[in-house]
Every structure is written in structure tokens, then in C-alpha cells.
Amino acid sequence: MSPEELQAAPKRVVGMKETKKALEHDRAVRVYIACDAEEAVVRPVIELSEDKSVPVVYVDSMAQLGRVCGIAVGAAAAAIAD
After folding, report:
1. Which long-range contacts does 4-8 make (Cβ < 8 Å, 24+ apart)?
2. Among 77, 8, 69, 73, which residue's Cα sits nearest to residue 47?
3. Cβ atoms within 10 A of the Cβ of 16, count?
4. Order of strands, edge to edge, in the sheet holding 12-14?
5. C-alpha–C-alpha distance, residues 5 and 80, integer Å
6. What pLDDT does residue 5 have?
7. What is the torsional sign of CA 3, 80, 33, 17?
8. Of 12, 34, 70, 82, which residue is 20 to 30 A from 23 by alpha carbon distance?
9. Which pLDDT band holds residue 4 (cuts at 50, 70, 90)?
10. Is pTM beyond 0.90 here?
11. Hey, how many other C-beta atoms are within 10 angstroms of the C-beta on 40?
């Protein structure tokens, strides 16, 4: 599972709030978390992913995750949605 899969996904959500919403509504298929994001910020999404049995993929940096998602700023979290 690589960030390129996220880039190629037809539906994706970017950002903590949108990723959390996708998980809460059972729309997230896979979650991506930036390794350099603050633990306190991403912990709720990681825990929700575990509760929902959604795989979590760790990406090297927020900058890389932002680039993969096609945005000019970093992103702490993103997800492939169904």
C-alpha cells in the first residue's frame, strides 16, 4: 500500500476533519497518516480507524501527503473513500 494508490484513487478525502467524517460514516477504505504530524492531532483518527478495522498507512511527511493529494500545503491525514 503506497501513497501512489491514494493519488490514483477516484475518491479521496484530505484533512483531519474530512478523514474523521469519512470514518464515522463508514466511507473510508484506507487511511493515510503523516509520520511527522503531531500525535495528539492524529490519534483520534488512528483510534477510529482501528475501531472500524480500516487499514492505516503511514507516509513520511505531511508535505509528501499533501503533494500526493494535489494540494499546495501539508496534510496530516487523508483517506481513500468508497
Report:
1. 4/68, 5/30, 5/80, 6/30, 6/32, 6/57, 6/68, 6/69, 6/78, 6/80, 7/68, 7/69, 7/70
2. 77
3. 17
4. 12-14, 77-81, 28-34, 56-59
5. 9
6. 87
7. positive
8. 70
9. confident
10. yes
11. 7
CATH H-level, domain 3-81: superfamily: Ribosomal protein L30/S12 (3.30.1330.30)
Q: Which three cell numbers stand for residue 1?
A: 500500500
Q: Cell for 73?
A: 500545503
pLDDT tens-digit map of 11-65: 999 999 999 999 999 999 999 999 999 999 999 999 999 999 999 999 999 999 9
